[in-house]
């Protein structure tokens, strides 16, 4: 939408100059300028911006260029701590109030609030909704309320949190101060709910593109989970990443399997004791090369910019959840990799969870639609990014940067194969699940097949020409195409739809993908993708200059007990390794080198560059 006219004395030029001096960024990222202009103009704002688009800058810069306190609602203590550390490293007066602080730190923050010295205060929604906190902050000069992960406000959102729902009342107790709500994922229903919950009047709303062009998108049928993930991780040795699992037990088992194969892997789920969970999260945030094997309890608000990959070992909850979770990779804008493994059992489980939930009929209907869209993305016949963006209402050309674009898709007239499946379903009375149908097709006399006499059916063994894995893929595809339904409330029985009946009786033909029928097959393009990543960054991951800078960064981070990216991000180090600055003036031209960091770290990094080039 068109940027609103500024009606304050502060200009975007002032904000841009402040950003260059403080953070070392040469200019706004796409979309930041209009959001910042609206905030500086005194507007209430709802901003939907993709992860990595620089949402935090949309409230941090206004906090720096005008007077008054900005209160930032943040969902995780670890996130608050690291963002405050990063701001302080850049010379910004920031603080946080949370239960992890010692008394001395909380006293220091309160003193800064009393004297008006604090520019940004990070606080959890739980603490903010407590009686008296909002009123106290109002007396401390709070001028702007920034709500991160704002989709948590909405029951339509995929991460609804009850304490977020109380933030509308908090805003009123703060004196109806100006508010900016930010999120990376919110469909039309969720955006409407956020606006209604938080604002008394319609906010200025910005919905920027959902595309994350630096992310490589890939999906493949799950055949041997551990082997597939280990093969993927071979391309990412020494890099940080997240592997999402569907259960606590799965995280423990997979983390142990990866560790046994020499991967530095940590399990993370809500069942782990709180202190140990925090310790593991800190290791992931502060060290390079950690693979976090986690449930979705891990990730919201994680601000580590150099996560180089995200793997889903099982189907995500929805397209929104998928988008949010893969968005934790490549926040620094550098190339990052994603892989999703999926199977029929995942789909059945997700449908069961929807039907057995306490949600309203309307919410269940929406969740079914979201799951159907995700299944269609898994079995998409064309560019994955096109399919993903179309869900969010955007059109795009083929991206050339996903498994389907690089590997290509081959299709064939699968009417006969579909008829074989549908005939087996019909001849067994639509009373059985996928594995039983597959056994009939390949002629496997399992105990259940013999017990029901299905080895005598005309369809028994008609699919011997294809392996089980191929028939499973074909069944997923006819499900995605709407030829069958899975009766979730009736033991996962497969039932033929009206369209499926038309195919069965020869009134309609069906075309399906053949490239996913081979067991364990994934798209081509692995070498091309890794080579492209190196070309895009301009430097190889094992470049000796880059390695020396990373080692120095890690040393400083450990000494200061902060995450490595707080010192400098990977993107900054890549710039230094490519540009080889010889003095402070040249170093200041590198990405992310603001005045405070130049003063604090400039000489030691210049010395390291001289040593490695000597």
From TrEMBL:
<keyword id="KW-0479">Metal-binding</keyword>
<dbReference type="InterPro" id="IPR044876">
    <property type="entry name" value="HRDC_dom_sf"/>
</dbReference>
<dbReference type="InterPro" id="IPR006293">
    <property type="entry name" value="DNA_helicase_ATP-dep_RecQ_bac"/>
</dbReference>
<dbReference type="InterPro" id="IPR004589">
    <property type="entry name" value="DNA_helicase_ATP-dep_RecQ"/>
</dbReference>
<feature type="domain" description="Helicase ATP-binding">
    <location>
        <begin position="36"/>
        <end position="204"/>
    </location>
</feature>
<dbReference type="InterPro" id="IPR018982">
    <property type="entry name" value="RQC_domain"/>
</dbReference>
<comment type="similarity">
    <text>Belongs to the helicase family. RecQ subfamily.</text>
</comment>
<keyword id="KW-0233">DNA recombination</keyword>
<feature type="domain" description="HRDC">
    <location>
        <begin position="539"/>
        <end position="614"/>
    </location>
</feature>
<keyword id="KW-0227">DNA damage</keyword>
<protein>
    <recommendedName>
        <fullName>DNA helicase RecQ</fullName>
        <ecNumber>5.6.2.4</ecNumber>
    </recommendedName>
</protein>
<keyword id="KW-0862">Zinc</keyword>
<dbReference type="Pfam" id="PF00570">
    <property type="entry name" value="HRDC"/>
</dbReference>
<keyword id="KW-0238">DNA-binding</keyword>
<dbReference type="InterPro" id="IPR036388">
    <property type="entry name" value="WH-like_DNA-bd_sf"/>
</dbReference>
<keyword id="KW-0413">Isomerase</keyword>
<dbReference type="Pfam" id="PF00271">
    <property type="entry name" value="Helicase_C"/>
</dbReference>
<keyword id="KW-0347">Helicase</keyword>
<keyword id="KW-0067">ATP-binding</keyword>
<dbReference type="Pfam" id="PF16124">
    <property type="entry name" value="RecQ_Zn_bind"/>
</dbReference>
<dbReference type="InterPro" id="IPR010997">
    <property type="entry name" value="HRDC-like_sf"/>
</dbReference>
<keyword id="KW-0234">DNA repair</keyword>
<dbReference type="Pfam" id="PF09382">
    <property type="entry name" value="RQC"/>
</dbReference>
<dbReference type="InterPro" id="IPR001650">
    <property type="entry name" value="Helicase_C-like"/>
</dbReference>
<dbReference type="InterPro" id="IPR002121">
    <property type="entry name" value="HRDC_dom"/>
</dbReference>
<keyword id="KW-0378">Hydrolase</keyword>
<dbReference type="InterPro" id="IPR014001">
    <property type="entry name" value="Helicase_ATP-bd"/>
</dbReference>
<dbReference type="InterPro" id="IPR011545">
    <property type="entry name" value="DEAD/DEAH_box_helicase_dom"/>
</dbReference>
<feature type="domain" description="Helicase C-terminal">
    <location>
        <begin position="225"/>
        <end position="372"/>
    </location>
</feature>
<dbReference type="GO" id="GO:0004386">
    <property type="term" value="F:helicase activity"/>
</dbReference>
<dbReference type="InterPro" id="IPR027417">
    <property type="entry name" value="P-loop_NTPase"/>
</dbReference>
<keyword id="KW-0547">Nucleotide-binding</keyword>
<dbReference type="Pfam" id="PF00270">
    <property type="entry name" value="DEAD"/>
</dbReference>
<dbReference type="InterPro" id="IPR032284">
    <property type="entry name" value="RecQ_Zn-bd"/>
</dbReference>
């Amino acid at each position: 939408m068109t940027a609103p006219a500024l009606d304050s004395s502060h200009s975007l030029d002032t904000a841009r100059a402040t950003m260059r001096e403080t953070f070392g960024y040469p200019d706004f990222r796409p979309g930041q300028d209009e959001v910042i202009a609206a905030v500086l103009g005194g507007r209430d704002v709802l901003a939907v911006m993709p992860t990595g688009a620089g949402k935090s800058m949309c409230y941090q810069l206004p906090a720096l260029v005008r007077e008054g306190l900005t209160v930032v609602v943040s969902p995780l203590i670890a996130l608050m701590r690291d963002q405050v550390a990063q701001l302080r490293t850049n010379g910004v007066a920031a603080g946080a109030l949370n239960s992890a602080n010692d008394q001395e730190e909380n006293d220091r923050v309160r003193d800064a609030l009393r004297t008006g010295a604090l520019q940004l205060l990070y606080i959890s929604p739980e603490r903010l909704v407590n009686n008296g906190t909002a009123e106290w902050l109002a007396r401390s000069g709070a001028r702007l309320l920034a709500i991160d992960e704002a989709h948590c406000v909405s029951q339509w959102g995929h991460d609804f949190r009850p304490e977020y729902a109380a933030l509308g009342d908090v805003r009123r107790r703060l004196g109806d101060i100006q508010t900016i709500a930010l999120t990376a994922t919110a469909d039309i229903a969720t955006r409407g709910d956020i606006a209604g919950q938080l604002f008394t009047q319609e906010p200025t709303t910005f919905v920027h593109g959902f595309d994350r062009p630096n992310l490589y998108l890939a999906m493949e049928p799950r055949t041997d989970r551990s082997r597939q993930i280990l093969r993927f991780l071979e391309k990412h040795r020494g890099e940080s990443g997240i592997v999402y699992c569907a259960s606590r037990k799965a995280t423990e088992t997979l983390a142990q399997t990866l560790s046994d194969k020499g991967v530095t892997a940590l399990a993370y789920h809500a069942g782990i004791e709180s202190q140990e969970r925090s310790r593991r999260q800190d290791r992931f945030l502060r060290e390079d090369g950690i693979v976090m094997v986690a449930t979705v309890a891990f990730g919201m608000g994680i601000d580590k910019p150099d996560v180089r990959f995200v793997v889903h070992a099982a189907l995500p909850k929805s397209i929104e959840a998928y988008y949010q979770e893969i968005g934790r990779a490549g926040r620094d804008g550098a190339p990052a990799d994603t892989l999703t493994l999926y199977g029929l059992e995942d789909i059945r489980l997700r449908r069961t969870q929807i039907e057995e939930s306490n949600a309203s009929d309307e919410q269940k209907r929406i969740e079914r639609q979201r799951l159907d869209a995700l299944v269609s993305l898994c079995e998409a016949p064309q560019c994955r990014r096109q399919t993903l963006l179309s869900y969010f209402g955007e059109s795009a050309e083929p991206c050339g940067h996903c498994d389907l674009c690089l590997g290509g898709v081959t299709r064939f007239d699968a009417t006969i194969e579909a008829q074989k499946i549908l005939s087996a379903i019909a001849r067994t009375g639509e009373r059985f699940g996928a594995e039983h149908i597959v056994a009939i097709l390949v002629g496997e006399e399992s105990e259940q097949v013999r017990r029901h006499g299905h080895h005598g059916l005309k369809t028994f063994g008609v699919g011997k020409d294809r392996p089980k894995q191929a028939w499973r893929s074909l069944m997923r595809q006819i499900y995605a195409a709407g030829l069958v339904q899975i009766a979730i409330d009736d033991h996962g029985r497969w039932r033929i739809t009206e369209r499926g009946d038309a195919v069965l009786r020869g009134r309609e033909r069906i075309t399906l993908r053949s490239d996913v029928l081979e067991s364990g097959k994934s798209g081509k393009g692995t070498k091309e993708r890794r080579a492209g990543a190196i070309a895009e960054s301009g430097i190889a991951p094992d470049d000796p200059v880059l390695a020396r800078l990373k080692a120095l960064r890690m040393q400083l981070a450990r000494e200061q007990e902060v995450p490595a990216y707080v010192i400098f991000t990977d993107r900054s180090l890549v710039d230094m390794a490519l540009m080889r600055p010889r003095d402070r003036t040249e170093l200041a031209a590198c990405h992310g080198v603001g005045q405070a960091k130049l003063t604090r770290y400039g000489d030691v990094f210049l010395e390291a560059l001289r040593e490695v080039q000597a």
